[in-house]
Amino acid sequence: MKINRKELLGILDIVSPGVSNKESNIEQATTFAFFKDRVVTYNDEISISHPIEGMEGLEGAIEAKILYPLLSKIADETIELTRNKNSEIIIRAGRMRSGLVLQKDIDLPIDEEIGEIEDWFDAPENLIEALSFVVFAAGKGLDSPILSGVHVSSKGFVEASDGYRIARHDLVGELGINTFVIPSSNISSLAHMGKITHIAEGMGWVHFKTEEETIFSSRVFEEKFPNTTSWTKMDGKKLVLPESIDDVLNRAMIFASRKSFLDEEILFSLEKGKFSIIAECDVAWFEEEVDAEYEGGENFSIRIAPAFLKDILKKTSACWIGTSKIKFNGAGWEYMSLLRV
User: Fold this and answer.
1) Residues 6+ away with beta carbon under 8 Å from 37
2) 257 Cβ neighbours under 8 A, 6+ residues apart
3) Could you give the CA distance from residue 168 to residue 160 in angstroms, rounded to a whole number?
4) Which helix (H) or strand (E) holds 302?
5) Is residue 221's pLDDT more than 70?
6) Which residue, of 60, 118, 249, 271, has the fewest CB within 10 Å?
7) What angle do CA 222, 182, 46 make, to 5 degrees?
């Protein structure tokens, strides 16, 4: 059968975040599994499936680290796929031929773990926006694993906290399912899926569906998220950040860059009437000062993700300084951090 190479590659791009990139005890966690007119990936933390046409008769699993790079290196628009008697997928393009082992028996625990998803509900229209906003405040350590998750509440908000800072964002529209806590490490892949239209609840999983019928499934935490309501209350003095802070952040982000955007941070401080932004990496460091206009006399410093602070500054240039906390807030969102006074 003939199939459009770019279309197939585009579909594999969508499901690729579900491929395990390390040794796993799960059979076929490093494969693309083709079955039931969909292609599926599963790595025990997330599973992604997407509709696919033209793969009839080729049901089975193929190693992702071979199939994807091969397709990306072929120049022809159309490729031909067949299966031979040795249970290999034969790929033909021009004068090229290649054979890839087809694992006919699919051993991924999709039915046992995820099963049939029946009750889909309309997802809040700003779900991805809210998750992407709060994820920077999630914890990264193992001392309290639940704080490495993002709390999605049926009361209409999402939040994340590492115990020193907290971010909240209201949802537009009802959640439709029970409260859950999703690992923050899965948010980036979910955000790249496109517009989430529906959401469903599973046993230990939560499922999201896009306009293109992609289904993104993520494990959820069994623990309950701590009640943070009282922690967000504070009084303080108003501080307006100058517009030039944004340009400084653009320069600081060069030095704060990390493999994972969740690990990026700068030191943001106020001392003797000047803001100071400091960033560093293994081979360089950066520091820049900006004049401050502040009616209070306190000095402080916080660590914050530069991309997150830039996002906040798009919404407001004002913050509130209390005796031990700093707070930014606007319509439907708030961010608070303990100060290092």
Assistant:
1) 51, 52, 53, 55
2) 264, 281
3) 7
4) strand 300-304
5) yes
6) 118
7) 100
Residue 176 burial (CB < 10 Å; 0-12/13-18/19+)?
Answer: middle
pLDDT at residue 55 in the model = 79
Q: Cα(164)–Cα(338) distance, rounded to whole angstroms?
A: 6
For residue 130, give both structure tokens: 């809210």
Which stretches does DSSP call E strand in 57-161? 60-63, 78-83, 88-93, 96-101, 121-122, 149-153, 157-161
The whole-angstrom separation of Cα 295 and Cα 310 is 23
Residue where the block lists tokens 């115990």: 163
- Indicate whether 341 pLDDT > 60: no
CB 253 within 8 A of CB 279: yes
Among 311, 304, 302, 305, smallest CA distance to 261 is for 305
Residue 250 has pLDDT above 70, yes or no: yes
What percent of the chain has pLDDT above 70? 97
What domains does the chain contain, in order, with CATH numbers? 2-113 (3.10.150.10), 121-230 (3.10.150.10), 234-338 (3.10.150.10)
Q: pLDDT-based confidence at 296, cuts 50/70/90? A: low
